[in-house]
Specification:
4-stranded antiparallel sheet; globular; 702 residues; 28 strands; alpha+beta; 23% strand; 20-stranded antiparallel sheet
C-alpha cells in the first residue's frame, strides 16, 4: 500500500542492480515504456565525489585484478566473480517486456541487457570473459545472425534464443529478441534538469496486465485484491523512480501514476502539518511522519486476507477474533484497530534518550482515545495476571503515572537485569510508545514545547517545510548519525583496502576508503524525503549529501542504534531454547480422589508443584488469561465450545479420561453445556483444572 515509501529505498538500491538498455544496439521498434526497466550508472558515476575516491578505486581493483583467492583456487571461479562484479558495479541496464515471439516456439517475454562495465574493464573485456567461461565449461558459442548484424545467436530446443555481442566497448545481450536500441530516460520521475542520472527503476503495471490477470485467477478474490491495490483493471499504477546528482547533492525523485485514484480515500486532505512536526524535538537526528487512515488501512488488509482465504480462511480468522475477545475481553477490530487515527510518527532525539535506540519514540494519532485507553488498561490487567503467575512475578504489566497521560502502562521485569521497560500511553489524543517510561514522559512534554524540529538548522537547510501538506516527510541529520557510524565504517574500509591491495606492490599509494572524520563530515548535508499528491498521481522528492561514503556512514549510524535490540532478541531466543524444560507427564504427583458420571477430579501434591516448573504452551496461557477480569465462566465455556480447548490438545495428560492445565487462582467446575459456578478454594495459590473427553471443565483440587 505505502508505495511512496518505495521511492527512496528502491532508487538507492539500483546502485547495485542492473538497469535499462542504452542506445547502441541493433534496431527494431521498441515499446515507448517497457514493463520493467532498471538502470545504474556504475561506481564511476556514483562515487564521483572526492571523498569517495578511495572506495571507487578499491572496487575497481577488485574488478580488474580479481578477488584474492587461495593458491589452489579454480581460476575460472575468480573470472566469474570478476564478470559479475563488473555487471553489478559498472554502468549496466536491463529491460523486460511482454512481446510477440518473432520465431516459432519463441518466448512471449523479451529481456535486454547492456553493460559498459567500469573504466579499465569495459564491454569488450566482459565479452571475452563470457566466451572464456563458456569454453571452459563446454557450453556452445553463438553463431553470427544475419538479421542482427554484429550479434551472435545461441539457440537451443525448448529455450528462448539468446543474442550477444559487443559494440563500442559495450556488452549487449538479448533474450527472446535481439537487443533494443531505445534508452529509458526516466524523465517522468522529475529529477532536476542539471542532475546526472545515477539510477532509475520503472514498473509499468499497464503493460503487465496479462500476467497479473493470470495471477489473479490463482486465488479466490485475487482479482478484487489486485484491483484494490491498483495493479489490475482501469488506470493501474505506474512507478518511475530515479536518482541523480549535481555537484554537491544527490537528488531522488519518483512519480507514481494513478496513486491518488486508488488510495486518496486513505489520505487526509491536510497532509503532514506543522502541528504534527511540533511534536518532534529540535534535536531529532531522524524522524518519519506519515499521514494515512491507519484504522481503515489495517481493516482493508484484514479484509484482503479474508477475501483471499476462502471460506476456511474466513472461519479461521473469525475464530481468531473470537478467541482474542474470549481471552482478553477486548474486541480486536473495535477495541484496537478502529480507534487508530490518521498520523504515524517515529523519531530519535537527545531529549528522549540520546539519539540512539533508547530515544526511539512512536506517536500514533487516535480518533477515539477513550476506547484505546480502556483497551490498553484491560489488556494490561489480563497480561499482568498471566505474566505474574507464569513468570513467578518476574514479568509484570503495571500502570504508570506520567504527567499529561490519560493512561500509561509499562512492562517491567522485577528481579531480572532486563535493560528495557517498554511503555505505552495515551496522551492528548495520541498513542505514545517508547522503550522507557522516561522517554514517553519527555515525548509527552514535547507536546507543549516552544521549539521543535521546525527550528532545527539541518531541517531548515534541507528545506524540510517543502514537504508540508504531503503524505510523508522523512528526515535524517546525517552528520549526527555519521558520528555513531564512523567507527564501524572505518573498520570496514580498512578491511576492504587490505583485501584489494596487491601483495606484489603493497606500498602502492591509494586513497583511504573512509577519509578522516572531519573531512568526511565537513559541511555534510542532511537527508530529506517527502511525497505529495499531485492530482491523481503521487510525486516524491529527496536530497542527500553527494558523498556515498558519507551517506553509508550515516546509514550505519542509524542501523547501529538498533543493534542492542537485535542482540537482546538473539540472546533472549537462545536462552529460551536452552532453558526450556521438557514437557513431562510425571511432573506432578496426581492421586485419584473422587469420580462421578459428570466430572473427573484429582489431587495434586503441592510439593511436586513447587519442585518443578512446567511450560505448557499457548493453550495453557489462554485458559490462564480467561480467569482475569470477572467473565471467567463464559469465556472458558466459549473456549471449549469453540474447540480451542480440547482434551489432549497441548495439555498435560492426567488421571483417567482427564487432561490438566496449570492456571492461576480459584477453582472452576462445569458440566457439559450446563451453567457453571465458581468455587474459590481457600488458602491455595493456584488452581488445577482439566478438560475432559466429554468437553467439560473440571476442578482439580490440591
Amino acid at each position: 500500500m505505502l508505495t511512496h515509501t518505495f521511492a527512496w529505498t528502491a532508487a538507492a538500491a539500483t546502485s547495485l542492480a542492473t538497469g535499462s538498455l542504452l542506445s547502441q544496439a541493433v534496431a527494431h521498434t521498441a515499446p515507448p515504456t517497457p514493463a520493467v526497466s532498471i538502470y545504474s550508472a556504475g561506481i564511476d558515476a556514483w562515487l564521483a565525489d572526492s571523498r569517495d575516491a578511495g572506495l571507487r578505486e578499491a572496487l575497481r581493483r577488485l574488478i580488474i585484478d580479481g578477488p584474492s583467492q587461495p593458491p589452489d583456487a579454480d581460476p575460472m571461479l575468480s573470472e566469474g566473480i570478476e564478470l559479475l562484479l563488473s555487471l553489478f558495479l559498472g554502468e549496466t541496464g536491463l529491460q523486460a517486456d511482454l512481446t510477440v515471439p518473432n520465431e516459432p516456439g519463441g518466448s512471449p517475454f523479451a529481456i535486454e541487457l547492456q553493460s559498459s562495465g567500469v573504466r579499465g574493464f569495459g564491454g569488450a573485456s566482459m565479452l571475452r570473459r563470457v566466451e572464456d567461461l563458456a569454453r571452459a565449461s563446454g557450453s556452445p558459442l553463438g553463431t553470427p545472425d544475419a538479421d542482427a548484424p554484429g550479434m551472435l545467436k545461441l539457440s537451443r530446443p525448448g529455450e528462448p534464443s539468446v543474442w550477444y555481442g559487443a559494440q563500442d566497448d559495450t556488452l549487449l545481450v538479448g533474450v527472446g529478441l535481439p537487443p533494443l536500441d531505445q534508452a529509458d530516460t526516466y524523465s517522468e520521475a522529475g529529477l532536476p534538469r542539471d542532475a546526472e542520472l545515477l539510477a532509475g527503476i520503472r514498473v509499468n503495471f499497464k503493460r503487465l496486465q496479462p500476467v497479473l490477470a493470470m495471477a489473479a485467477m490463482s486465488a479466490p478474490g485475487g482479482g478484487e485484491l489486485l484491483e484494490s491495490w491498483g495493479l489490475l483493471g482501469q488506470d493501474p499504477l505506474g512507478v518511475v523512480c530515479a536518482v541523480g546528482a549535481t555537484e554537491d547533492t544527490v537528488h531522488m525523485a519518483g512519480h507514481f501514476a494513478n496513486y491518488g485514484t486508488h488510495f486518496s480515500h486513505l489520505l487526509p486532505e491536510d497532509g503532514v502539518t506543522r502541528n504534527l512536526l511540533r511534536r518532534i524535538p529540535e534535536s531529532a537526528c531522524a524522524f518519519e511522519c506519515t499521514r494515512i487512515d491507519f484504522g481503515t488501512y489495517i481493516n482493508a488488509l484484514l479484509d484482503a486476507v479474508e477475501m483471499t482465504g476462502g471460506s476456511d480462511g474466513n472461519t479461521e480468522l473469525q475464530q481468531g477474533y473470537d478467541m482474542f475477545h474470549a481471552v482478553t475481553g477486548v474486541d480486536f477490530r473495535d477495541g484496537l484497530i478502529a480507534p487508530l487515527g490518521d498520523s504515524l510518527t517515529f523519531y530519535m532525539s537527545n531529549e528522549t534518550g540520546g539519539n540512539g535506540l533508547a530515544s526511539l519514540v512512536g506517536l500514533v494519532g487516535l480518533r477515539d482515545a477513550a476506547t484505546m485507553s480502556e483497551s490498553i488498561s484491560t489488556l494490561a490487567s489480563v497480561a499482568d495476571h498471566a505474566a505474574a503467575s507464569e513468570s513467578q512475578g518476574y514479568v509484570r504489566f503495571l500502570a504508570q503515572r506520567i504527567s499529561g497521560c490519560d493512561t500509561a502502562v509499562s512492562m517491567r521485569f522485577p528481579g531480572l537485569p532486563i535493560p528495557v521497560e517498554p511503555t505505552i500511553a495515551v496522551a492528548d489524543g495520541t498513542l505514545v510508545m517508547g522503550l522507557f517510561p522516561q522517554a514517553v514522559a519527555e515525548a509527552v512534554a514535547q507536546f507543549d514545547a516552544r521549539r521543535s524540529v521546525l527550528d532545527a538548522e539541518g531541517f531548515r537547510m534541507a528545506r524540510g517545510t517543502d514537504g508540508l501538506g504531503g503524505v510523508q516527510i522523512k528526515y535524517m541529520d546525517q552528520k549526527v548519525l555519521a558520528a555513531d557510524g564512523f567507527g564501524c565504517m572505518a573498520f570496514v574500509g580498512a578491511a576492504l583496502e587490505n583485501y584489494t591491495r596487491s601483495r606484489r606492490s603493497p606500498e602502492a599509494p591509494a586513497p583511504p576508503v573512509v577519509p578522516a572524520y572531519t573531512r568526511l563530515t565537513n559541511d555534510m548535508q542532511p537527508g530529506l524525503f517527502w511525497a505529495k499528491l499531485d492530482g491523481p498521481d503521487l510525486i516524491a522528492r529527496g536530497t542527500a549529501d553527494r558523498s556515498m561514503v558519507a551517506q553509508m556512514t550515516a546509514g550505519v549510524g542509524y542501523v547501529s542504534a538498533f543493534s542492542p535490540l537485535i542482540v537482546a532478541a538473539a540472546l533472549g531466543s537462545a536462552m529460551a531454547e536452552q532453558n526450556e524444560p521438557p514437557l513431562l507427564i510425571d511432573q506432578f504427583s496426581v492421586q485419584p480422589e473422587q469420580h462421578d458420571e459428570h466430572v473427573d477430579t484429582a489431587v495434586v501434591d503441592p510439593a511436586a508443584l513447587a519442585q518443578r516448573r512446567t511450560r505448557l504452551g499457548t493453550l495453557h496461557t489462554a485458559l490462564h488469561l480467561a480467569r482475569s477480569n470477572g467473565e471467567d465462566i463464559a469465556r472458558l465455556r466459549d473456549l471449549v465450545s469453540g474447540g480451542w480447548l480440547t482434551a489432549g490438545d497441548l495439555l498435560v495428560p492426567g488421571h483417567g479420561d482427564a487432561t490438566y492445565l496449570l492456571v492461576g487462582g480459584g477453582a472452576i467446575e462445569a458440566e457439559g453445556g450446563a451453567p457453571c459456578a465458581i468455587a474459590e478454594p481457600s488458602g491455595l495459590p493456584h488452581g488445577r483444572y482439566c478438560v475432559t473427553e466429554r468437553g467439560q471443565i473440571a476442578e482439580v483440587g490440591f
